[in-house]
Amino acid sequence: MKIIKYVIISFILFFIFRILFITNFWHNLEHKASDVFFMLRGEREISGDIVIIEIGDDTFSTLNERWPFPREYHAKLIENLEMAGASQIIFDIEFTERTNINSDSKLAATIAKYDNIILSGKLIRTQYNNSVREQLLSPISLLTQTGTKWGTVNISADPDGFVRRYELFQKRAKEIKLSIGAIAMAHHYKLDILSEDIENYPKFFKIGSNYIPKVTSKSALINYYGPARTFNTYDYADIIDDSTFTTDFEKELGTNLDQYYQLAGNFRNKIVLIGLTSVEFHDTHHMPFFSENNQLMPGVEIHANFIETVLRNDYLKQFPMIPYLLFIFIVTILLFIFNSLIRPTISVFINMVLIIGFIWFSYFLFSTKQTIIPILEIPVLIIVIYIVGLVLQYIQTVKERKFIKQAFGQYIAPELVEELIKDPKKLEYGGVQKEVTVLYSDIVSFTPYTESHTPKETVDILREYLTEMVNIITENKGTLDKFVGDEIVAMFGAPVDLKDHAYYACKTAMEMRHRMTELHEKWESENRDPFEIGIGINTGVVTVGNLGSEQIFDYTAIGDNMNAGARIESLTRDYETKNNIIISDSTYEQVIDKVEAKYIDDATVKGKKIVIRIHELLSIK
User: Rounded to 5 degrees, what angle do the CA atoms 18, 157, 365 make?
Assistant: First the structure.
């Protein structure tokens, strides 16, 4: 039944956590944790096969031109890069609007001469009357009619504004348009973009022999190689600045520096991306390394990171969801059982080790296996389940305290009740072998007494007698075992260990005897008939514990030495003693220095074959 309870509660916790873990708030926390892993891993060496040509603030200053630049400039850029031996020229610049016909024609004519140029477009989504209108903006027809390939440059951010995914394609109705990164890779591997070499699967996007793991239906994780400007970057103005082109800066100097000539060797067999990097063009983005240098990354460099990832087959992938969910469910059950059973002072350290170990394991998977597993879920699960276990153990402790107080509050001393509360395991079902001292007290000739008195008189005097005797037992750290009619059975040394239990039993017997003397005087003054009691004490090993049923709790003791105690009490009828108290030799040996006692006889006890030495208890020293 306990296992079923653990599984049910664990499933409820698992279900609640799954609801939490699918919220945007939680996703943002996980993203921030993965960003920390990027920074811990640090910058990685790049292949050098990709270079970026930026149109930045220095470009505008050098050329003294406003945007958009004359398209003859882009034509010259292409010619210079082709002469330098670039393997691909990719424009992250949208030529979606017509400008001067001569400029457009010049660019179109230049593009038509080469088959390694990729242009860009974009899918635009606008909200219109509670519906979304989609428009695919392509380069002007003058540029595309040459057969030049173009791809989309859409960049999507997570809810926290950081870019961690690369969109492989855009879909409008049934039309799919690949991104410039995907087209660049298709061109690199000499693939036809309309062939089966490029295929969209539910979990992967295939480009030739490359299977790119998808994180959404159309995007893959970007395995960033470092912060902004990790890739070799050159200024646009320097590349078009050849012997035939004079910049505004060179006009001021009265000379032509020919920057292109000095840089041309840096583009041979390289994939070249051209893009805007000025913040004012709103194509700069937050990414995982942002906190390292507080620099936004231009969109063109995000495309570069994706292309580098594919070239090196260096994909980030998510840990498979179904095995992970099964794993976390099993972990939830084990954690709940562990934190419900182990003391919090111990489990807190083990839980801390588990948290540190899992975070290290997550980083190990990320840095060596390129695998992302939810970083914070299990640590939060451990913390919350520890708290739940803490609460459940507290509730269980309160229940046990209440039960112990109810079960023993009237039968043993308050300090012994507190001892049991500290260690409730002493009350677990079952018995243990333990040495105790048992005390039997019985009213002499009680049956004739009841016959000569009314039931009310008998009950009243019996209640007063039993109350006084039980008080003495509990005051001396004894445990009231049971009432058997008018007989009192008490034990010393259980359920809580008691040093000198034999002494406390003897002390109790003497105080009971003294209290009976006082009760006699009281009863006689009230014109009530008194009665006498006999007390027998024995020390020995008994079986003690919760020996009741599963329905009824009964903490008691059984065994030969319990029976011997009852038989010794019955001998008080056979021997003339001062206090009517007889103790066994096993008790006397433990209290020989603490009591005055007198040897009586070697008696044969009913039900036992051996002879027991018995002593009369006279007083406490």
Answer: 55
pLDDT at residue 550 tops 80: no
Q: Which amino acid appears at position 129 of this protein?
A: N
The pair phi, psi for residue 296, each rounded to 5°, is -75, 150
Domains of the chain: 1-38+315-408 (no CATH), 48-311 (no CATH), 424-620 (3.30.70.1230)
pLDDT for position 177: 92
Write out pLDDT tens, residues 506-548: 999 999 999 999 999 999 999 999 999 999 999 999 988 776 5
Between CA 221 and CA 306 the distance in angstroms is 9
Which residues lie across from 582 on neighbouring strands?
A: 536, 616
Of 545, 542, 543, 541, give the one whose Cα is nearest residue 430: 545
Q: Quote the DSSP letter at residue 266.
A: G
Sign of CA dihedral 69, 73, 78, 82: negative
DSSP assigned state of 217: S
Residues 430-467 pLDDT 10s: 577 889 999 999 998 888 888 888 889 889 999 999 99
Strands 50-55 and 271-276: parallel
DSSP 573: G
Dihedral over Cα of 338, 343, 347, 348: its sign? positive
Q: What is the pLDDT of residues 411-433, one digit of tens each?
A: 555 555 565 566 665 555 557 78
Neighbours of 138 (CB within 10 A): 17
pLDDT at 424: 61
Classify burial at 193, counting beta carbons within 10 Å of its beta carbon; exposed 0-12, middle 13-18, buried 19 or more. middle
Q: How far apart are CA 350 and CA 345, in angstroms?
A: 10
The answer, as to whether pTM is greater than 0.85, is no
As given in the structure block, the two tokens for residue 128 are 């219109």
Look at residue 8 in the predicted model and tell me its pLDDT: 84
Distance CA 107, CA 145 (A): 12
The alpha carbon of 507 is separated from its chain's Cα centroid by a whole number of angstroms, namely 56
